[in-house]
Amino acid sequence: MFNCNRLGQKIRIKQLVIALLILYYLTPACYSQFLVAPQYAGGGSSQVVAVGDFNNDHHLDVVTANAGGGNLGVWLGNGDGTFQTSHQYNSAEDPLWVVVADFNRDGKLDLAASNYTDLNGGTVSILLGNGDGTFQPHVDYLVGPWSVSLAVGDFNGDQIPDLAAAVSGTNSVALLIGNGDGTFQGHRDLTVGNFPSMIAVADFNIDGHMDLAVTNLNDSTISILLGNGDGTFQASANIPVRAYGLLSDDMNDDGRFDLVIWDCCSVTVLLSKGNGAFDSRVAAAGELSGATTIGDFNGDGKKDVANAFVVLFLGKGDGTLNLAPERWGTQTGTNWATSGDFNEDGRLDLVTADEGGSISVLIGNGNGSFQADVTYGTLPGPTAVASTDFNGDGFSDVAVGTGSGLEVFLGNGDSTLTFKKNNAVGDYPVAVITADFNQDGKADLVTANVNNSVSLLLGVGDGTFGTHADFATGSDPVSVAAGDLNGDGKLDLITANAKDNSISILLGDGHGSFQSKKDLTLGTSPLSLAVGDFNGDKKVDLAAVHSGDAVSVLLGNGDGTFQPAADYPTGLDPRFVAVGDFDHNGFDDLAVAFEGNPNPLSYIAPGVSIFINRGSGSFLAHSDVSAGGVPLALAVSDFDGDGNSDLAAADGGKYCRILPFEGVKCYWDTSFGVLLGRGNGTFKVLSYFTGLKANSVYVSDLNRDGRPDVVLSAAESSSVNLFLNNSKGFRELLLSVSLAGGGGGVVTSSPVGINCGSTGQIACTANFVSGLSITLTAVAAPGSVFTGWAEDCSGTSTCTLTMNSDHNVSAAFQPMPDFSFTVSMPTPAAVAAGQSATSTITVDSLSGFNDMVSFTCSVSPAVMLPPTCSGISLTPPAGNSVTGTLTIQTSAPALSQSLGWQTGAFFALWLPMAGMMLAFAPTPSKYGRYQQRLFVGLSMLLVLAVLLLLPACGGDNSKQHGGLGTPSGNYTITINATAPGGLRHSTTLMLKVQ
Asked: CA of 828: how far to CAs of 7, 836, 838, 871, 872, in Å?
């Protein structure tokens, strides 16, 4: 994948050599990102990148093999994700590969590079490290013609690193056995397949010896060479599978080293059987393939795969990969990527080797994303994109016109999107805008459709929209704009109609409807239009580009009519017009994207025509600037915070090249350009490669950091792509937050930046872009309450600040009002059944508590007639204490002492005697009334005696009976205290009943 133009100039053997250099077959175009991955310049064309700590400061450093420059580039890391200026160290000619190891065992990392065009026929260069980030001059070892890649491992078990080089010219792997002092023995060759390209080292048969796996380009095989542990290997066994490159790791956590291979169109995992053999393909991931590094990029404990594009394939933990890869990128074409934690936050980052000799660093977020662009799939054929807040949550949302309708994605405020709904509109919408057409404060949507109509969707305010209402336009409307054309305070619509050479004007009624169209003839096939005030009269004017290679300017009369068009020539084949003040004169200027002529035989470069406004509504002749590619659409914003209007260009047009042996070959551009304005009508051009054919561009702040981000739609890949702006040019102001009070809580900000209290810190700071609105939220910890803001915030709700200066904010958290209580030991500590004990309860007010506290008791063990507590309630004054007395009562038995045996014996004798007397007494009927009364009285006396005295029979004069009182024993009494608000506390005390 290296330099495609250079490849065509090599003889066939060199073409194949560079083709194997990982991803020539895989690179349809350079792939990258927007203002996110910082680049660090180097020399030559960086091919492969490796990492290590070269100066022993415990920070990861980076080294690249720079083909063409004949050197290795070294960047020393600062430990925060940034790197120092590179230093170059000579190698032999055209190093293609570099590996890192301590070859002389001095505790300092060394370098080894393979060189494919060395005059001596292919060498490996050794550069011994000094331990301070510098390296000694290279020493070269001959390995054979066209040494293209390199791997390191201990092949003879002596704990000294050895080297294996893929030598394409001899269809072999050259082994260099290390001596342990930085020198190597002469190479020994191992026969492999035709044109070996990459090597992976691992123990594939779990015998403790290092083995080799080698991809062979020309016979579509992988050679497996099992090591004997003494520096020799068994004969290669070839697996018939096409692979341009490979890596090895345990992809399904079974303890065996698997292979990750790739070709032009897929990434595949071959699962190891543990005996040196591999299962057939078990997983394939398509699109931009390749695999240059393996790691856990989303923190789920499963191995993921990343490549040089940069595309991330998330692993499922079973050896399969997610077939919907995440796309990221850098600012130029990349050849290789590897991973490491460069900012020491515990998350894997990526560094890429770039074609321009630089490296790009993508900081990982730990969730499978990087600080770069991200892609969301859409329905087929996305044509246009617009962005604003559709659901009123303060976050930017996205609407995408597709061949099947209008898809809405709701923003989460952190640059991620969630699909909401696909909305029906007219046939195949080709343009989309957003504005408030019924003046209800909610964003609406309008699309221009190929069935000669515009569709209006009124927003509900929650991210949904009403049924579309269609309004007729001219033939084939390809562009739509909104403005108050007649000065009535209501938005109107204008469409550019390509097939009948007209523009249609639809005056709005402010309630979500429009009058019938009025058409104006304009040029030849108008393709794009924009509104502005070109002559400073506060009336809306129009600019439209058409295929006559001109832009037409129509000055508005303020009543919905326009003056005759004035035409200004543009660059060849104009496609899009945008409005902005590019020279700071206070008047709207024009920028026109044009495609030029891609035919190499009659080539005319594409670019952007800039028209500077004279201030009267007329324009100077255009000056053309590059757009970094072939532009199809433009958006205007200040991307670098310098106060000048800049341009973003969706570069998705066609370009062609003349290739040796192939003639003219045409491609679609897959980048977007950023034109940074200098404030005088001139621009500095940056190009960001996306790997996607973009056809529409929109600007919105997707993560609420105050910087304008870029949204692209790409029809060919059916996606909408978000590119975050990480420019450091914006003025930033400091927000300081401190926590006060005796309680606990957390203060967070939206957008993110402040997260104070989550890890115990009580003072936090963050920088935010000037003018940004920040919302602070305070959440109390359990047992605490948020009592309010101080300094630059007030109240007890959320606090919103505008960062027009540095701000200081204090958040007070207090412990929640509560109480505590103590209970003295009972007095006395031991009682007899029937007696009581008392305890003193003291209730203390905490944090202003002054509610009533009620006390209840529970007793263990559970018995008949247990001790009981008297009910009591106490109310402490705020900040003070109150005391009360708790009484614990026991139950006495009905007769506490049984009678002596003498008395018992007496009653035991007389009771039967009395009964006998009654039994033999004459019946009452034989006596008179007096005798009858006497008989009844004696009988009642007998019954009463039985009831009262019978229990005493057989008793002992010295013993308690106790059957009907509180049983003796030790009792645990739990004192429960409750108060309003669910507050509840308890304690225990002991009481002995004798």
From this structure: 102, 8, 7, 19, 20
